[in-house]
Amino acid sequence: MLTLRRLGIDTYRENVAFLSRACTAYRPEDFQALDKIEVFTGARRILATLNIVDDPAVLAPDALGLSTRAFARLGLAEGTAVEIVQASPPESLEAIRAKIRGETLEERQLDAIIGDIAAHRYSKMEIAAFLIACASFMTTAETLALTRAMARVGGRLSWDAELVVDKHCIGGVPGNRTSMIVVPIVAAHGLPIPKTSSRAITSPSGTADTMEVLANVDVGVDAMRDLVRDAKGCLVWGGHVNLSPADDILISVERPLGIDTSEQLVASIMSKKLAAGSTHLLIDIPVGPTAKIRTRAEAVRLRKLFEYIAVHVGIEIVVLLTDGSQPVGRGIGPVLEARDVMAVLRREPDAPADLRDRALQLAGHILEFDPELKGGAGFVRARQLLDDGSALAAMDRIIDGQGRAAAPSALGNRTKKVLAQRDGVVAAIDCYRLARIARLAGAPTDMGAGIDLFRKVGDPVAAGEPLYRIHAQIAADFKFACDLAETGSGYTIDDTGGGR
Amino acid sequence: MLTLRRLGIDTYRENVAFLSRACTAYRPEDFQALDKIEVFTGARRILATLNIVDDPAVLAPDALGLSTRAFARLGLAEGTAVEIVQASPPESLEAIRAKIRGETLEERQLDAIIGDIAAHRYSKMEIAAFLIACASFMTTAETLALTRAMARVGGRLSWDAELVVDKHCIGGVPGNRTSMIVVPIVAAHGLPIPKTSSRAITSPSGTADTMEVLANVDVGVDAMRDLVRDAKGCLVWGGHVNLSPADDILISVERPLGIDTSEQLVASIMSKKLAAGSTHLLIDIPVGPTAKIRTRAEAVRLRKLFEYIAVHVGIEIVVLLTDGSQPVGRGIGPVLEARDVMAVLRREPDAPADLRDRALQLAGHILEFDPELKGGAGFVRARQLLDDGSALAAMDRIIDGQGRAAAPSALGNRTKKVLAQRDGVVAAIDCYRLARIARLAGAPTDMGAGIDLFRKVGDPVAAGEPLYRIHAQIAADFKFACDLAETGSGYTIDDTGGGR
User: Fold this and answer.
1) How far apart are CA A366 and CA A389, in angstroms?
2) How many CA atoms lie within 13 A of A461 on its CB side?
């Protein structure tokens, strides 16, 4: 028997157990070669990767240390007597081996795999095996089964409404914060739109990050329900809702491996929408040479897959292909994006027209889910709700409902203007590069960090005129961002030629 | 800047870095989401997975801890000032993504992947991605390129001889310790046979484990060279030779995932033989219903792949399919197997005939690599060298050269006879099950643990007569082994019927 200890080591998503090399109750080296052990007492048990500790200051000889999250998952007190055994690999790994051999998987096999992943029975290595086996080929039936399996293992929301609308953008275009305009418009119309968003992971800001400039986004399910009842909408971080716990784990492996298949993307999004109780869904796929989806053909394939899954899980869907050729609005980074969003809602004369137009277009499509609205009337209704201040009022209700941010975050006060090297017309802006520069500047951790764009595609510019301004708070971040901008602004400037 | 500290935590094959959550020089949470960091000072750098430490007793705020092996790999003193950056994923991951998309890889891409793996730039998750991408399909040209890439990153042996022979068994049959008889026979004939072997990983004994009962096997390359010059052969552990460091890393992921493709197996073996400077090679593929290769068709496909690779890397090869339907010899476990081997070499009357016959068959094929021997004369020559004591004398030279074991290890003194449940004839013995029982009994860690077989396939047996005896040292191991034997001895006993 070993004595349980919580080791203050955060191994992120992987359960890690620590055993002293001087352990007398077990032979550490025998276990380590096997890579994974089961820690248990009675019926409580978790799987964990084993690390061996040589330093008695870190762990006593007959103690069993667990990383912070593994300790929480096991849910026993420090000092509890625990045992360990060689972990038998999850049985569902057999299905993955079948997939590798070229078989297609049935729903019950995908259920078993996703159940084991959600229960933290898979190591990252095993998750990678699953993802790669699926990446080489996956039928639409498998994608559907995967979507259902992923929805099943998470929480599930239900709403007292026949029509619950939602929107989702697959991302990749900086500044594209349409949700923060669409949600108040749709809520002002009276359609329930309980929007959960993610925080940025590799981008300079997620909708949750930008919304956090204005309001608390750390909202539980009950408060969310109250909000949707009272204000018809919300803009909260999805972290509490736990809609697709397996997906969160899958993403932690997909991202570093750079696996980005349509099937995984669609299953990930649709499982969350299914679990969120959405009945009607708008998907926004920006297409552009530096966006996530680069060609129209690719976008159309993705659209068809979304439609197939939606039909089969019973969600009404509209998939729009939008312009992803350059950033949307002027700001990139939480504070700057929130500024743009509020400028549109407040109908300020210099509010970015592209952000406004796009939000109206999307909101219009969502409003047409309302059977009361005549076909084609959605856009006009959306514009009306924006122009008459109803959307702004709805946004104020949502902000107050979630909890208004105490003080507005300041813009980063280290600034640098990046200048045009030549005369001409802006021909292209590299979304990916600008996102990286904004990210290096400190966004989204520093809410005030980011990029403020002065020129968009089609604008004329003279050599020496500013293209954009970098904002940062921390000296090192500022330098990294400026250095990257120095090696390439991300702007392509062409001859004005015969004029355009 | 951070201060380097060696944390006494052995994370096995993966580099792990530890950073305090209270770190002021960096933002731990930013780095952790990225999973991998680069730790460096000047030109010295390693990649590592990042864990965050909450316990100040484990790590001070501005220290950077490294797991024991990562610390050794970086090769800097404790207290050195180091920096960290987000690690860019190895560029060769791009080739893996291409492979996932269905492309075939060129030699330079496989070179880059294997180089990065050998340099510990891949996490287990990334290695799994590579292995699974290859497992779904791999051309023979890719297998060849992989073999060459794996041979290239390791050490390389060269010998002052035109003919350097070697043998390799793909394993899966307990007690099959022919190498320890073949090597002395071949050495006695005068052909250089520098045999390196592995220790058991999932089996109850590897050749290195069994040889260690008799002699030191922990021999460096220089001593090995002296041995081969003086005694013409050796039987050493391959751990010092570092012939295929990438393979050792790949195996640490293949095993827990249960990936076992022919392509990986052949590339693994042939890369080591290529690096070992072998010119002529005998491959032994045991075929049997409970062995690694279960059908003749599978064995023939594997043979053809071995032959293809051998031709292209310039190694002369003979591939034999042998009987893998039951254990070879009587002992399973280091001490028991060493007893069988020495009984054959010493020409004891009760030496196991199947082990002797098989070793002679294999040695005969190897001896025929000698251009001086007439076709078909190899077996006779092998038998002559065994019968006239030359092989025993050669084994004594090899044992003395490597360093004779001080005291012979004792057989485990906890014993249990497993009895036949009925009268009849032994129809089958489950290799896999007996290996598991012997392993549970403590083999190979306890050299004296294992199984001593009293009956083989075809032997008559009466109910209540012993089939085999379990030997163990440690009470818990003994119980586990006996428990498993209780649920099924691994023997199938059929009616004697009208005789066989």
Assistant:
1) 19
2) 26
- Residue A387 CA to residue B85 CA, distance in Å, equals 48
φ, ψ at A427 (rounded to 5°) = -95, -30
Alpha helices in A276-389 (DSSP H): 296-313, 334-345, 353-367, 378-387
Contact assessment for residue A323 and residue A173, using Cβ atoms and an 8 Å cutoff: no
Q: Contact at 8 Å (CB) between B163 and B280?
A: yes
Which residues, in sequence order, are CB contacts of A341 under 8 Å at separation 6+? A177, A180, A181, A210, A329, A355
Residues A175, A39 share a domain = no
pLDDT at position A114 over 60: yes
pTM here is 0.81
Same domain, yes or no, for B276 and B340? yes
> Best interface-test mutation with A: which of B10, B71, B123 has the largest number of A CBs within 10 A?
B10
User: How does DSSP assign A19-74, residue by residue?
Assistant: EETT-SSS-HHHHHHT-EEEEEETTEEEEEEEEEE--TTT--TTEEEE-HHHHHHH
Read off the pLDDT band of A498 (50, 70, 90).
very low
What pLDDT is recorded for position B500?
Answer: 41
Chain A environment of B259 (Cβ under 8 Å)? 97, 100, 129
Same-domain check for residues B344 and B421? no
A171 and A310 in a single domain? The answer is yes
Predicted pLDDT at B499: 45
Domain boundary among the residues B86, B114, B147 is at B86
A443: helix, strand or coil: coil
Which one, of B387, B340, B329, lies nearest residue B213 by Cα?
Answer: B340
Marked catalytic residue, from B10, B260, B459, B494: B260
What is the three-class DSSP state of B374? coil
In this predicted structure, what is the pLDDT of residue A420? 96
Same domain, B342 and B465: no
Residues of chain B in contact with residue A52, where contact means CB-CB under 8 angstroms, are 9-10, 12
Catalytic residue from among A260, A388, A400, A495: A260
Structure tokens at B121: 């730039």
Which amino acid is located at B81 in the chain? A
Q: What percent of chain A has pLDDT over 70?
A: 98
Of A29, A125, A255, which is closest to B256 when you measure between CB atoms?
A: A125
Copy the structure tokens of residue A117.
Answer: 């992943």
ipTM of the complex: 0.76
How many whole angstroms separate alpha carbon A213 and alpha carbon B495?
82
Residue A12, pLDDT > 80, answer: no
Q: Which residue range(s) make up the domain with A485?
A: 414-494
Dihedral over alpha carbons B439, B440, B445, B449 (to 10 degrees): -80
Q: Which of B88, B157, B202, B179 is nearest to B436 (CA)?
A: B202
C-alpha B439 chain-centroid distance:
15
pLDDT (0 to 100) of residue B450: 97
Task: Tell me whether residue B148 is in a domain.
Answer: no
Q: What is the DSSP string of A449-468?
A: -EEEES--TT-EE-TTSEEE
Quote the number of domains for chain A.
4
Q: Between chains, do B129 and A259 touch, taking CB under 8 Å as contact? A: yes
Contacts of B64 by beta carbon, 8 Å cutoff, 6+ apart:
B2, B3, B4, B5, B17, B18, B19, B39, B82, B84
Determine which of A255-264, A408-417, B484-493 has the lowest per-residue pLDDT on average.
A255-264
Distance CA B190, CA B367 (A): 10
pLDDT of B330: 97
Q: A426-477 pLDDT, tens per residue?
A: 999 999 999 999 999 999 989 999 999 999 999 999 999 999 999 999 898 8
pLDDT, tens only, B400-439: 999 999 887 899 999 999 999 999 999 999 999 999 999 9
pLDDT at site B34: 56
Is A260 one of the catalytic residues?
yes
Predicted pLDDT of residue B423: 95
| Spans of chain B below 70 pLDDT | 32-35, 497-500
